[in-house]
Amino acid sequence: MTAQTGTTGSPTGPVTPAPAATAGRPDDRSPHGAGEAGAQRRGTSRAREGRAAWILAIPFCLLFLAFTAWPVLQSLFMSITDTRARDLRKPFSVNIIGFDNFAKALSDPIFRKAAANTAYFVLVGVPLTLVLALAAALALDKGITRFRAIFRLGFYLPVITSIVAVAVVWRFLLQDPGGLINTVLGWVGISGPNWLGDPDWSMPALIIMAAWRNFGTAMIIFLAGLQAVPAELHEAAAIDGANAWKRFRHVTLPLLRPTMLFVMVTTSIGYLQVFEEPFVMTKGGPLNSTMTVSYYTYQQFGFGNYGLASAMSYLIFVVIAIVTALQFRLLRERT
Amino acid sequence: MSVDTAPRPVGKPGQSGPSGPRSRDSKPRLGMVGSSQGSKWWLYVILTVALVAVIAPFIWMVLGSFKNEGELRQVPPTWLPESASLDNYTQLFDKLSFGQFFTNSIVVAVVVTIGNLVFCSMLGYALAMLDFKGKRVIFVAVMTTLMIPGVVTFVPLFVLVANAGLIDSLPGLFLPFLVSPFGVFLMRQFILGLPKDLLDAGRVDGAGELRIFWKIILPLCGPALATLGILTFLGSWNNFLWPLVVAQSEDKYTLPVALALYSTGQNSTNYGLLLAGATVVIVPILVVFLVFQKRFIEGIATTGLK
Question: How is chain A split into domains, by residue range?
Fold first, then answer.
């Protein structure tokens, strides 16, 4: 690291020509140069620029190739082989089995159950998170003028908290009997369910927890988006007699569409990969009611079924790509 | 965070000056809306109730970390500790070497953050301002991997690190995360918004390309660097799955790993220790966030993040 910083810090001494003929430089990169001398100068300056760019790019590229690009290709290859944990030492003993892993995953009842659970999590969790985030952002942006920073920090606190710490606390909150949530529900006469022990309530519990944990991110991005909504439009609409809801519906919301798209896409992608919540809270139980695709993939990896796990992870990727494309379609076209 | 955005109309340099204008635009509006603040007291009530609901788990956690086992098992649960003590914390650091886990977490998070800030801003600058062969290829490769979920690379990455003999070592914990496509994208977007004249001015003054980057561009990237720095630090500090499989002996554990293993291991019955551990995990990031909060939010507003 230090070596790298050194390289960047030092100017390219010997290569830098004397700053004599500076007048022509700003034009250097325009396609229509001026005369032969200009062309020549442009050539050396371009070469210099290219060399500098590559010096800047090399460290990233090396790390990127090793730890991102190579694993991506490798897992693509693994997904069509029968690679298992014991094959790691002798990589040439694996067989190419085509799409068998994909077929196996898709016909596995637990994988299907996991896919259904993940869909449930996304379809309920994403709207819930977005509504909470938008409500909080609107209240903080328009509604109040004081204590903004405190509310913002408070709402953002769950985002910056380690999932492991969250899990420790939420297991307490969700206990039955005696958990904080059921105690509070008891005050208003509701006897709360055994959240994590009941297959019908375990997924809702995780969804509530995920919404609590993630709405802060979306809120911050919405806040940034709201600042770009010009006040004049609101004023004009108010003068025309539009009430707050109409102004929100017809002024704010359309202008917020790009932000909405971004938040929706990123939240959906995150939720489609839901892993940590079931991992720390339920281990996929009870009765696989919180088994998600990512968690099941992780389990297969743990069992040493590398080929199968890779195929499953590519299935997630395909779904993510499709969902992302769909959302772009839906939210883009009407702008 | 990482994704979408590839097809977005990125980079119209100069469409809106360097950084500030957007937030400055909004100021008069806020003042004006404030004129109706008298009628908004109910909003404060709602927001306060919401705030209490959101942070109640934290308050309860911190309070709980000072309670003894007996009290924590009471039904119904108590709020304020009946007899507050620091026993849980002393035990955490004396018996369970949480100091070591803490150090590991800090080292990994700091190295990863510095790596991302340096390498991603370097390439981000090259992609935004310079012309070179291979630029398109790099950009397309980076944007493509932005779309690929972490689970895809997890297995081969583990195999790679295992083959390199880096399992159960600190480099094994931080090397794979030194650069991120997301970081490059964020830095590129921000630098695209800087006026290109800066570059020409630097060249006229005879500064080398790298010097222009280091002395002129980088100092202007404050908000973007703050955003990337905080996101990276948080991500690394809270990263759980990777250290869980890579760190295998106790002296390599990071805080989340230690906490997770203790909460399911033989100490799972000791709630006081767990709550104290959970508190220890949160405090440092809270400090980081409090210090950089303003720049962070500014950064989100002025980079291509929204």
Answer: 2-9+24-78, 101-333
